Every structure is written in C-alpha cells, then in structure tokens.
Amino acid sequence: MHYGDYKTILSPGNGMNLYRGCSHGCIYCDSRSACYQINHDFEDIEIKRDAVKIFEAQLVRKRKPCMIGTGSMCDPYIHLEDDIKLTRQCLQLIDRYGFGLSILTKSARIMRDMDILKSINEKTKCIVQMTLTTLDEDLCKIIEPNVSTTAERFEVLEAMRDEGIPTVVWFDPILPFINDTEENLHGIMDYCIRAKVKGIVFFGFAMTLREGSREYFYAKLDEHFPWVKQQYIRTFGNSYVCASPNDHRLTGIFKDICKKHEIMYKHDDVFKYSRTFEKKEQQMSLF
Asked: Taking the CB of residue 17, how many other CB atoms lie within 10 A of it?
C-alpha cells in the first residue's frame, strides 16, 4: 500500500472513492483498464491521505443532504479496511450529518458496520448493493478469488433483509462461455427472491473488455480456461461489449422472473431508487 494526495473524495455524482486499486483479484475487473490511469500496480492499494477530513469538509459544504454512493474504482471493503477503517469512519460521518447511503461491495466485511447502516436507515435510506455473478462456488473462487463467496454474500443480503435495510444486486458481469447458463441465472435469481431484493442491475449476459483489462483477463483465461481464450478472440475480436450467444434467450427469462416477483430491473428505475434521498419521519416518544 501507499498514500496519495487528493483534493476531493466525492465525485461530481456523489460517489465516495477512498482507495484506488483493489485486492479482490476479480479476473474481469474493468477498473484495470488503461483509461482509468492507475499508474501503479493494481494490487498496491493507493490510500487517499486525509480522506476522512476531506470527506467531512465536502459534506459540510453541501447545501442539503443527498444519497452518497461508492465509486467503482475500488471496493470499500478491501482487505486493508480491516485495519485502516476509512470506510467505517466515513459512514459515521454520513450518519452524523444526515445523508443517505448506497454502498456497493462484494465483501461480507460490510457486516462489521451493521450498527451504522441501521442508524442511517432509521433516519433516511441506506441501500446495500451486492454483486453476485455465479452460483458455482468453485467457479467463484477462480473468477473472484480474494473476496467473499457467493453464499457468504447471500447471507449478507439475508441479514440486511432481516434488519429492514433495502438491497440491490448487481448481476454483472456474465462471462460468455463460462457462467452464461440458465442454471446460473435461476440460481442467482433464487437468491435474489429469497433475500427480497428491491432491484437488480443487469446489463445482459455480457461483459466488457478494453485495453488493460482485456490483457489481464486473457492471461487468467490461459491459466484457468485455456480452451476459452480462442473462443473470445474468434467471437469478439477487439469488441468492447462481449455478449453471450445465449444473451437474448436468457435475458427474456430474467425479465420474466423479475416481473413475476416485482423486482425492479429497468436501469432508470433501479438507479433512480438508489439515488433518491428520502428523509424518514421520526416518531416522538411519549415518555
């Protein structure tokens, strides 16, 4: 790890980025792409110096509360968070100043901060967003090697459900020729139904590849799925979007399941829900 100097923590869209780089090792990670200009080893996490102080100053300057999200350049619950606790400290500020939260992770470490999430949710809206990509636990350990298993993430969703904290699942990305199966679709959707998620962010049975992320992904295909790399090259070439041959059929099944169980799946609906600040009425005690 190393430290870097920054002037802001919040993006123009109110995304909270505390770290750059990631230790989860997901083989498909778009944040490795050259366009993001991470000019250090991706696993050598850059910690934003004085992040909590800068973040608080930005919150204080805002004219009214809003939803604070998390940026996609790094999971807020990487391994360093166990010791450094930047995410926890910033969640405490979000709670103190009355902002809402929409936090995206793949890690069960978020359970550590359940006390703050509950406190935020009592006053406004706290949304926990969890990425689920594959039902197969052995496959999960290959494509997302250093993060909580799918089953562990499902347990987080159930815990949030039981505490009345709304959840959204990112069913993304789906890797053509690897986890683009009907079995995987039904397994993930069963988790979503049982956890009573509010919405699912879904971009089809597809993934994206560009300079930087493509080279890393192909190297991992050589390591774990050597017969698949040539399929990608023949099928997609240098295309940015790599859609499964099963995309149209499986997407239809996905939409039917969402409609049946009243789960939001249209992008505009899910993103509007996640970004809309709501202040809850506080009941006064009679005693």
From this structure: 20
- Residue 72, pLDDT > 90, answer no
- The tokens for 285 are 């005690």
Question: CA-CA distance, 5 to 46, in Å (whole number)?
Answer: 10
Convert 151-160 to b/e letters by CB count within 10 Å (16 or more is b): eebbebbebb
Rounded CA separation 76/78 (Å):
6
CB 63 within 8 A of CB 100: no
pLDDT of residue 284: 46
All residues at 6 or more sequence positions from 110 whose CB lies less than 8 Å from its CB, including other chains? 77, 103, 117, 128, 156
Concatenate the DSSP letters of all residues of 68-83 into one string: EEE-SSS-TT-TTHHH
The greatest distance separating any two alpha carbons of the chain, rounded to the nearest whole angstrom, comes to 72
For the chain, where are the alpha helices, taking DSSP H only? 51-61, 81-84, 86-96, 114-123, 137-143, 150-162, 182-195, 213-224, 229-236, 247-260, 267-275
At residue 257, what is the residue type? I
User: For the chain, what is the mean pLDDT?
Assistant: 95
The whole-angstrom separation of Cα 27 and Cα 180 is 16
Q: Which two tokens stand for residue 116?
A: 């703050």
Retrieve residue 114's tokens: 């359940």
Residue 260's closest CA among 193, 203, 201?
Answer: 193
pLDDT at 281: 74
Distance CA 131, CA 32 (A): 18
pLDDT digits (tens, 9 = 90+) for 156-208: 999 999 999 999 999 999 999 999 999 999 999 999 999 999 999 999 999 99
The identity of residue 169, as a single letter, is V
Lowest mean pLDDT: which of 71-85, 137-151, 231-245, 270-284?
270-284
The whole-angstrom separation of Cα 186 and Cα 184 is: 6
Q: Please, is 53 exposed, middle or buried when counting C-beta atoms within 10 Å of its C-beta (0-12, 13-18, 19+)?
A: exposed
